[in-house]
Design a protein that fits this description.
It is a single chain. The chain has 309 residues and is α/β, with parallel strands linked by helices. The protein folds into 2 domains: 1-130, Nucleotidyltransferase, domain 5, CATH 3.30.420.300; 132-309, 2-keto-3-deoxy-galactonokinase, C-terminal domain (Nucleotidyltransferase, domain 5, 2-Layer Sandwich). The chain has 9 helices and 17 strands. The chain has helices at 48-56, 98-101, 132-143, 175-185, 199-211, 216-229, 238-250, 266-278, 288-308, and strands at residues 5-6, 9-14, 19-24, 30-36, 63-64, 71-75, 88-90, 93-94, 103-104, 112-114, 117-120, 127-129, 148-152, 157-163, 166-173, 260-264, 284-287. A 6-stranded mixed sheet has the order 4-3-2-6-10-9, with helices on both faces. A 6-stranded mixed sheet has the order 8-15-14-13-16-17, with helices on both faces. Strand 9 and strand 10 (112-114) form a beta hairpin. Helix 3 (132-143) packs across helix 9 and helix 5 (199-211) packs parallel to helix 7 (238-250). It is globular, with a radius of gyration of 21 Å.
């Protein structure tokens, strides 16, 4: 990093429990990045801008222009309890409209824009996403996609269908949150062996979840019974529970002519890749950070053109 570097845009992905920040130069290259555990759940509306400035402060000596560039933010900063509510676009929607519908935060010192979420306003299957729409846009941009199925693992995992360059439908699974709740606040946590790296147990769970021989709630209690009656078995481990939940979620996949892409990073990408491969479901993996960066940069460019034009 040299003193000659100049910032052009600050891109931010703000989650419920943490946030990630990237500094772009004029060519769209990442010249600095930072993250922290100050997510939406721990902030008031007046905390957002100071949090960004605190993360940018260490870069002030080596990157110029940090005070003069806009912030482009996706995720929970746009929730009703976030910095400023950004609302939702309605399914079906073209992801290219995200920049057009971004809101400008009032009273922010820097030009600050928050990207809207997306809502599925169907009484039979209402659903919402906030942040994932940006990852989807970045994935489509980077891969040149107009039609595909997507899986976005996470606390609230999403399965999404894109057709004719529009997001047409999606379903949310509370897989990550359910695993954490079961491990910390249920009868399962204290009795399951801590064998997270046990692939055999994980795969057994994946198959059990995907086949759905029993309803999920019954399968979960069987996991506890197995731990009590057969404490050395694969089904008495955390790895099995993880596989069971991911396998149950994977049953949402519907075979079609549309390719399947998993948008995830690090351990989460590996887990879903293992599960889908074991179930013989063809798929491709796109790094979530790279997808976010690609979309935030493009939306920043679109907003600049709209502002200057």
């Amino acid at each position: 990093m040299t003193a000659s570097q100049t910032a052009s845009l600050i891109g931010i992905d703000w989650g419920t429990s943490n946030m990630r920040l990237w500094v772009f130069d004029a060519q769209g290259n990442i010249i600095a990045n930072a993250q922290c555990d100050k997510g939406m759940s721990s902030l008031t509306s007046s905390d957002y801008e100071p949090t960004i400035k605190a993360l940018l402060s260490p870069f002030g000596a080596t990157i110029s222009g940090l005070r003069d560039v806009p912030y482009i933010i996706c995720g929970m900063a746009g929730a009703a309890t976030g910095w400023q509510e950004a609302g939702y676009l309605s399914v079906p929607t073209a992801l290219t409209s995200l920049a057009d519908e971004a809101i400008e935060v009032q009273a922010a010192e820097a030009k600050t824009y928050i990207i809207p979420g997306i809502a599925q306003r169907e009484e039979q299957q209402p659903d919402v996403m906030r942040g994932e729409e940006t990852l989807l846009y970045g994935a489509c941009l980077s891969q040149g996609l107009t039609e595909a199925q997507f899986c976005l693992p996470g606390t609230h995992a999403k399965w999404v269908t894109m057709k004719d360059s529009c997001l047409t439908a999606f379903t949310t699974f509370m897989t990550g949150e359910l695993y954490n709740l079961l491990m910390t606040h249920s009868i399962l946590g204290p009795v399951l062996a801590k064998q997270k790296g046990d692939d055999t147990a994980f795969y057994e769970g994946v198959v059990a979840g995907a086949k759905a021989v029993h309803p999920l709630s019954a399968a979960l209690f069987s996991t506890r019974a197995s731990a009590l009656l057969f404490p050395g078995s694969h089904t008495a481990s955390q790895a099995y529970l993880s596989g069971l939940l991911i396998g149950h979620e994977s049953a949402a996949y519907q075979e079609s002519d549309l390719p399947l892409y998993v948008i995830a990073s690090s351990d989460m990408a590996i887990r879903y890749q293992k599960a889908l491969t074991y179930l013989a479901i063809p798929h491709h993996v796109i790094d979530a950070d790279e997808a976010a960066q690609c979309a935030l940069w493009q939306i920043g460019k679109d907003l600049k053109e709209r502002r200057d034009g």
